[in-house]
Amino acid sequence: MKIFIDTADINEIREIKELGILDGVTTNPSLVKKTGRPWKEAVSEILKECAGLPVSVEVVATDTEGMVREARELAKLGDNAVIKIPCTEAGIRAVRTLSAEGIKTNVTLVFSPLQALLAAKVGATYVSPFIGRIDDIGYDGMMVIEEVVNLYEVYGVETEIIAASIRHVDHVRRCAELGVDIATIPYKVIKQMFRHPLTDVGLERFLRDAEEAGIKI
Ligand code: E4P
Q1: In testing the pocket of ligand 1, which one of 2, 4, 28 has its CB within 8 Å of the most ligand atoms?
Q2: Is 6 in the pocket of ligand 1 (CB under 6 A)?
Q3: In CA terms, which of 68, 78, 119, 176 is 20 to 30 Å from 140?
Q4: pLDDT score at 71
């Protein structure tokens, strides 16, 4: 499973990239707002820092024409720009046009397998079903991921699935078990993936024994 980081914070991106585990980045207007930086400056820096890795940047227009215009502008910011388009009728129409132009897209705000099917039909590069926001309203977000994975498998769909709105490590584990293509994970959750109390206890014991045995390398 590929690991994307779900943030617009350049320091978080740099740190995770340096670990050698980063396959891409997803941003959205709320994440850019959190940085307190002008959006173009923030987004351009991420695209440059992550040259060669896909970076999703979201449009803000809601009509097809506006989305296509914004997408073309955003695509000029870097070869690695992937344009995030909301899963609305206008959005699906925009993705059809952008696919024909060879502009990579990520259909976002997907909450059902049928929305994911529509995104695939117009040639979306990626589709982003949200997990946490479904859990938040009392349903099972992971169920939607499973349904999208199954549906795409049945039809041999090439659109890659990005599991989004991930809130904790168990979401990541279950995505990996389902064979999801990509999980876009917040910085804090990526850091938690490294941790296990038995690793800490085990390391402490090995180091104590090494000292007692006089092991020096
Ligand atoms: C990423 O593509 C999504 O915009 C993001 O994962 C949404 O996460 P949230 O539901 O925690 O805001």
Answers
A1: 28
A2: yes
A3: 119
A4: 98
H helices of the chain, in order, are: 10-18, 29-35, 39-49, 64-75, 89-100, 113-121, 132-136, 141-155, 169-178, 187-193, 197-212
Q: Which two tokens stand for residue 210?
A: 């090494």
**23-43 pLDDT per residue, tens:** 999 999 999 999 999 999 999
Residue ranges of the domains in the chain?
Answer: 2-212
Our answer to whether residue 84 is catalytic in this structure is yes
The answer, yes or no, to whether any atom of ligand 1 lies below 6 A from the CB of 168, is no
CA of 206 to the centre of ligand 1 (A): 40
CB atoms within 10 A of CB 201: 10
Residue 207 corresponds to which amino acid? Answer: L
Query: How large is the C-alpha radius of gyration of the chain?
Result: 19
Q: Whose CA is nearest to atom 7 of ligand 1?
A: 165
Alpha-carbon gap, residue 74 to 189, rounded angstroms? 28
What is the three-class DSSP state of 92? helix
